[in-house]
Each structure stands twice: as C-alpha cells, then as structure tokens.
Design goal:
Helix content is 56%, strand content 15%. The protein has two domains: 112 residues, Arc Repressor Mutant, subunit A, CATH 1.10.10; 30 residues. The chain starts with a helix and ends with a helix. The radius of gyration is 26 Å and the shape is elongated.
Length: 152
C-alpha cells in the first residue's frame, strides 16, 4: 500500500486523467506533490512526458491543446513550499487500475476507518466502560440463572 500523500496525489491526478491515452499538464505543484509524483513515476504508476523525448509530439499537443491544471494549495504545507514547474503526466495501466481502486467508495471507507477510528484512544475508554458494565451485570445474571434453575 502506498503512503497517504501518494494515495492522495494519485487520486487527484485520477480526477483529471481518466484513461491511459490522456495526458494533462499540471503546474504549481507543491514540494510534497513533486516528491509524491517522483515516487509514483519510480513505481511505474504514472509516466512523465518530457519535451524533446520520444513523446515530443504528445507533449506539444498536450501543452498547446489543453489548459494546464493548477494544483496550487494541494498538499502544500506553506507558501514557501510551492514549486513553480510544469509537468505533463499520463497513467500507466497499473497506475490507472490502482487509482480506480483508491477512488472506490469501499476503499475510502476502509481508509477513513483505519485513519480515524481503528487506533483512536476513545476505544480504550469504551473498552473500560464495557468491562465495568459486564462486571456489574455478570454476578446478577449468574444469581438470576442459578435461582431459576434451583426452583425447578
């Protein structure tokens, strides 16, 4: 499973790129988004289309035809964290499948549960209260059952 900021970055890219044939230009990426993007490229989930490379015509078509998507403020921790660069990205098949998985309702519920509910300290208090209640009612239940069985 990917780290949280990489999952959020992958989901953000998936909200703009919907197939492996699409490529979109993104700009105003924060330092965290640049790091996540580099990690996603290294994992083979997205491809960076560079100017002058094999995909030069695709780069130019994306650059000229589509308006760049501004990611200013996405995953930034401060104003100084903004990196002024443009990057043209597209999904690999593996990356698109993973992005579809991470965008599913069930994954988001599971992710929310693990993030906010699973290890929350409130469960320690709930467990203590339930143990206390069980400690009160168990002897009463035992007395009630033993008196009911002895009466017959």
């Amino acid at each position: 499973m990917l780290p949280k900021y990489e999952i959020e970055t992958l989901r953000k890219y998936h909200s703009y790129i919907h197939s492996i044939d699409e490529s979109i230009c993104f700009n105003n990426l924060s330092e965290r988004v640049c790091n996540a993007t580099r990690n996603l490229i290294e994992r083979g989930l997205i491809l960076e289309i560079k100017e002058g490379g094999r995909e030069h015509t695709q780069y130019m078509a994306t650059w000229l035809a589509g308006a760049p998507v501004n990611l200013k403020g996405f995953l930034s921790s401060s104003e100084e964290g903004e990196v002024r660069q443009k990057v043209v990205l597209k999904f690999t098949l593996k990356g698109l499948d993973l992005a579809n998985k991470y965008n599913s309702r069930w994954f988001r519920i599971k992710f929310w549960y693990e993030e906010y509910i699973k290890n929350h300290p409130i469960w320690l208090l709930v467990g203590y209260i339930l143990t206390y209640i069980a400690g009160i009612f168990t002897p009463l239940l035992v007395n009630w059952l033993s008196s009911g069985l002895g009466a017959k």
